[in-house]
Amino acid sequence: MGSQILQNPSDPYATYREKAGNKKRGYTANIVETVGDNGSIVTNYQYEKNTHSDSQFLKETVESMEKTEEPTVLITDGAYSVRDNTNAAAEKNIDLVTTDLTGREAKDIAADFEFTEDGKKVIHCSAGNPPKSCNYINQTGQCRISFPKNKCENCPHCDQCNPKLFNRTSMVFLSKKSFDRAKTQRKMKTEKYKELSRIRNGVETIPSILWRKYQIDHMPVRGLLPTKLRFGIKLAALNFKKLFGYLNSVGQCALILQIS
């Protein structure tokens, strides 16, 4: 059945979606948490029909953010990793860090190729050799890259590229998407990236608290706007609890300093 079919007669806006093998009915939310040296606080949230994707949420978040002189780090999980969102974030000086990637892993060697900005032509391969010819395939988004056969046969990266060898030429199929993915995979293995990933893991406590303590799956109202308002009130309560916890910790530190 279609996702827009009526799920509840008392709530005509609720939709249906299957995600990660689970059946979901109703609405979905996205939360933006700002993390600093003294703690964290929820600074924004989005609340839409259940069919709203993670990628759409991120796109709207990036569009609403102002460009700053200092780079802003935005940490998400793999469901938000879309090339268009990454490019849009870069235009606003936002470093989009995804702690995981969905889909098939790209060959690591793809990160050493160089593409033109539009991704429709390869300038040189991982060994620095310019291609004999390069044709862009619209249907697949890949480049058909041809090299002289001897260049690939004698290349130390031949086993990694795994080109198709013909009588005089060799051929490699590669897309700009695979190139970007391979670069991201390398970036994810750095120590800085791993440190940011640990911050991302801390964000998982927010949904857990909202489900367990604030019972967001059991609201005594129906409809998009009433449930959105209730959800916002629960986030405000969560922020107040974070604030009180911070003030208590500051008060305890001050007391210890006075005693000492």
Can you describe what's shown?
There is one protein chain. The protein is an alpha+beta fold and 260 residues long. The chain contains eight helices and eleven strands. It has helices spanning 54-64, 83-91, 149-153, 158-161, 176-188, 191-203, 205-212, 224-259; strands at 15-19, 22-36, 39-49, 72-76, 94-98, 114-115, 122-124, 133-137, 142-148, 164-165, 169-175. Strands 8-9-11-10 form a four-stranded antiparallel beta sheet. A hairpin with a 6-residue loop joins strand 6 (114-115) and strand 7 (122-124). The longest helix has 36 residues, at 224-259. It is elongated. The N and C termini lie far apart (68 Å).
Number of helices: 8
The count of strands amounts to: 11
The profile of the biggest β sheet is: 4 strands, antiparallel
Order of helices and strands: EEEHEHEEEEEHHEEHHHH
Label the overall shape: elongated
Oligomer: single chain
Topology, please?
Layout: E1 15-19, E2 22-36, E3 39-49, H1 54-64, E4 72-76, H2 83-91, E5 94-98, E6 114-115, E7 122-124, E8 133-137, E9 142-148, H3 149-153, H4 158-161, E10 164-165, E11 169-175, H5 176-188, H6 191-203, H7 205-212, H8 224-259
Parallel strand pairs: 4-5
Antiparallel strand pairs: 1-2, 2-3, 6-7, 8-9, 9-11, 10-11
